Amino acid sequence: MFFKIKSxxxxxxxxxxxxxxxxxxxxxLVTKCFYDSKKKDAYPRIKSILKNNTVDINFxxxxxxxxxxxxxxxxxxxxxxxxxxxxxxxxTINNSISISxxxxxxxxxxxxxxxxxxxxxxxxYLETLFSRVHNDSLLLLQAIHSSKEHQLFWKKLQDHYxxxxxxxxxxxxFIFFRKEQEKEHFTIRV
Length: 190
Hints:
Blueprint: H1 2-14, H2 24-34, H3 43-52, H4 59-72, E1 76-78, H5 84-92, E2 98-100, E3 109-115, H6 116-120, H7 123-130, E4 133-142, H8 148-158, E5 165-168, E6 172-176, E7 184-187
Helix pairs in contact: 2-4, 4-5
């Protein structure tokens, strides 16, 4: 617990809002999606899903994830998790997307959501995931600051040659593969 508190204070010192962002792509993502404060019809349903299930995600992050899909116009989602049905419900409210719980095919995905534990335990799995993304894909990782090992692995992911843009929101880590963009890391308060 002490580690997480210390980590959060370090995050606050490093973090910025949209005014510290010089990438047009990230600036628009932050201002039009992350900071979108309009109440959505899906939010009461999301709250109900979270209340009735043991999903390892908070309401604030669930709302953000629900806004990401339509903002980035994603259609194909991979959620290889035990809680995938609940997260899939959160994503698909008011969205028409294809959810897959199995990465058995060679399909490329727009959006992949998972807990960083899944990657940390198996770096071979990371390469499999990276082979299933395209230029505009997003790999969204949960729990990047929950332990020292997770933070170290997050930093390792930022250095990966395929990764171009990362955004740290403390609870979530966003990884983009945009070849047209310079390698950059952002620490954003949400």
